[in-house]
Amino acid sequence: xxxxxxxxxxxxxxxxxxxxxxxxxxxxxxxxxxxxxxxxxxxxxxxxxxxxxxxxxxxxxxxxxxxxxxxxxxxxxxxxxxxxxxxxxxxxxxxxxxxxxxxxxxxxxxxxxxxxxxxxxxxxxxxxxxxxxxxxxxxxxxxxxxxxxxxxxxxxxxxxxxxxxxxxxxxxxxxxxxxxxxxxxxxxxxxxxxxxxxxxxxxxxxxxxxxxxxxxxxxxxxxxxxxxxxxxxxxxxxxxxxxxxxxxxxxxxxxxxxxxxxxxxxxxxxxxxxxxxxxxxxxxxxxxxxxxxxxxxxxxxxxxxxxxxxxxxxxxxxxxxxxxxxxxxxxxxxxxxxxxxxxxxxxxxxxxxxxxxxxxxxxxxxxxxxxxxxxxxxxxxxxxxxxxxxxxxxxxxxxxxxxxxxxxxxxxxxxxxxxxxxxxxxxxxxxxxxxxxxxxxxxxxxxxxxxxxxxxxxxxxxxxxxxxxxxxxxxxxxxxxxxxxxxxxxxxxxxxxxxxxxxxxxxxxxxxxxxxxxxxxxxxxxxxxxxxxx
Length: 534
Hints:
Blueprint: E1 2-11, E2 20-27, E3 30-35, E4 42-47, E5 52-55, E6 57-59, H1 67-70, H2 75-78, E7 82-87, H3 103-108, H4 125-135, E8 140-143, E9 145-146, H5 147-155, H6 164-179, E10 184-188, H7 199-211, E11 215-219, H8 227-241, E12 245-247, H9 261-273, E13 278-282, E14 287-291, H10 305-313, H11 315-328, E15 335-339, H12 353-360, H13 364-374, E16 380-384, H14 388-396, E17 400-402, H15 423-438, H16 444-451, H17 453-459, E18 475-478, E19 499-504, E20 507-511, E21 514-515
Parallel strand pairs: 1-4, 1-5, 6-7, 7-8, 9-10, 10-11, 11-12, 12-13, 13-17
Antiparallel strand pairs: 1-2, 2-3, 5-18, 14-16, 15-16, 18-19, 19-20, 20-21
Helix pairs in contact: 5-6, 6-7, 7-8, 8-9, 12-13, 15-16
């Protein structure tokens, strides 16, 4: 007697191999049998005729650190087939929450979830992961510790290299976080204070990763005119320290760099030939999203958010900031306000800065400054900065996995506010709809391999990512002819269509497209720290 059998499905097992007709049986939290199970008995059946069954999708790049505390059901992710999320990306993690400037960590995370709605009752990474595990989640969680967080804890927002003592403190906190269950460290080298670091600092921290068999995830130092140099730096850090590298949301951003990605990707190919383990992830959109403070030059962030806002209030310094912002040549009619913290500016959500500027009778740059001051820095943006052929080149590359760069949201409550990027709701269905079914950029089996087996292999999740007897039962059942993203830039809080069922650790979390309320997810441990959680 099995607990569950998915029958009559086309099995795409996550390895990249061709799909085949097979049934999948689940007992407890494991895949118990794969094959023709027509005479078997089970407590529950899912008839998947005309459907595909594949491993649960692994979202390699998310910012759900706080969202999962507010939305443990992880609605927008599990409803698109995600069964594992990697959190703590772009250098920002909620732990270790220590040091005299710890409150700045909250400010850095304000555009992904309202930090004031969360009780920050942790200090260490172990405390935070323990909080997640105790509360429960609908999906599995892989935690990273952020370089931004480590730097704030050790030296605040100082715009300089660390002293020997400060570097040692970062190394200590990193080692403790790895022992507590973090899979690796992420950097956010385009935003302060991570951007205040140099390569030597990052190599010194990566050597700690090497000692613990951990991973280096990097939002690299530039995605526009410095893209080649920034990609090379990430590879250099991995090569010198002997650690696997994951380049976050690999892209060529802004018009002057469009068309560069095929050449940039050769840097990773050459690194692989030298024995450097490098991969990268991508989201399947030509628009990115971040906090609007990212539009302010690095030097103005020294000292933290309050210092930044003070500079915007000082007429002389404001003019210097204006000169740097204007020199960038940003396309304001392609830069949209997504989220604000005040009701006064709610009417502007979803509108581009040029439009808001016209409504206010101001220049777009002054509008940016005013919004940041009015929102105390808590304003998010979406900007259309990529070209489709560059995205296609990345997503088709064999070293590429899929990461949403979004969060586990839901259409109601605090997480249903604003006009966030639709990737939080639609990334994985979009890959299967647009890049497989409609445009043929990927074969179905290759797309699923990127979203399952390849991602699990990169993370060292040896018992997940494939449909094989004995592995954990993380499964997705979907209709390849109808699966589609429904969320849009103008109306993002909408769940996808065409996903029938999602199973996490043997429990059905989505049945007939609806959430069951079960929370069977686990906080996963790296292979160097084996546990019953897998």
